[in-house]
Every structure is written in structure tokens, then in C-alpha cells.
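Kindly review this record before class:
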Amino acid sequence: MLENVFQTLKEDIGIIYKKDPAATNIIEICLCYPGFHAILLHRIAHKLWLIKLPVIPRLISAFSRFLTGIDIHPGATIGRRFFIDHGMGVVIGETAEIGDDVLLYQGVTLGGTTSNHGKRHPTLKRGVVVGAGAKILGNITIGNYSKIGAGSVVIDNVPDHATVVGIPGKIVVQKIFDEEAGCLLHNRIPDPVSCELNRLKYEIQDLKEKISE
């Protein structure tokens, strides 16, 4: 069991090296990365939560939030090689489920839309990337390797390998993810509303020309 703990810790550090070009050495990651601190403390709190130890898991979670600015409920299930880049303002609810190799940027919320007990937070499958400030709300599923653009609000299920942007989130086909670098291209996120307005403008122009003829 101790070997598994060290293996998970090694993977959590390794994924930071892989996805953050600013990471230069292990000491820097261990001392200066709030996302690493948050996931390390969460893994401890989650183990205690699973054995139904009262109060202590929530205290660890509260200390982690004070230390890092990242609020992860100890009940949340988080997979391997999870990376929160910068991390300030990230909120992950109690029944959230996060698969392996998921990347969250700062300000992301995995929130609930009901006060009922039971599953009320999102499920993020393997390889999901969520851009800065995005909100994913309710008991919905974000499919494998899907990408959520910065500032989007997602309230419906997302299929595998989809790219979602906007409020509410819409699936788009534009490339906003650099597969080689492993990061969202925030400067290439399209505006679905603007695209639809442009489409309507050209359609109206075409109709005017037909009427004139």
C-alpha cells in the first residue's frame, strides 16, 4: 500500500513536469505549486472520508483551502495524474468524480444544482481539460478527452472528444487544443453566438437578393 502511495505521488509530480513548462525541479513543485499541495491534502482527506472518520477530513479540506485557495470536498473522487494549473478559486463538490489525466485551470467550478442528497456534481472522464473560469454544473458527464473552453458554463452531458465553449456551453469544431503541448489555446476560443449571428446575417442578405431578383 505504501508503494502505491509513493507511485501516485510520483505521478502527480510527473504530470506537472509534463504539462507546465514553468516547472523546473522537484523542490520547486513540492514547495511552490498550490495545485500539488491541494491534491496531496485531498488524497489524505479522501482516505479518511472513506473510513467515515468524522470532522478530520473536513478540517484537512478547510486547511487546504486556506493554504491554496482551492476548495475540494473530501468526498470527491479524483483519479491519477490530476493537475490543477495555478488553481486559485477552483471548487470541486462532494460527489464530483474525476478520471485519470484531467487538467483544470484556475477558477473552475465543478458544482451542484440541487440540495438533494446523492449524485449532484459532474463526472469528468479521462483526459478532460477545463479552461480558466469554466463552470460545470449538475450531475452531468464530460466525455473522455473533451475540452471545455475558458469561461464556459456547461449544464448538459458532453460526448467523448468534444470541444465546448460559450454560455450555455455549445459543441464547436474549431481546434482550440494543442495536442502536442497539452494545453488549451485560449486565444482561439470561438464565440458561438457571434458565429450564429454571422450565419443569420448572410442568410438574410441572400434572401434579400432573391427577393430583389
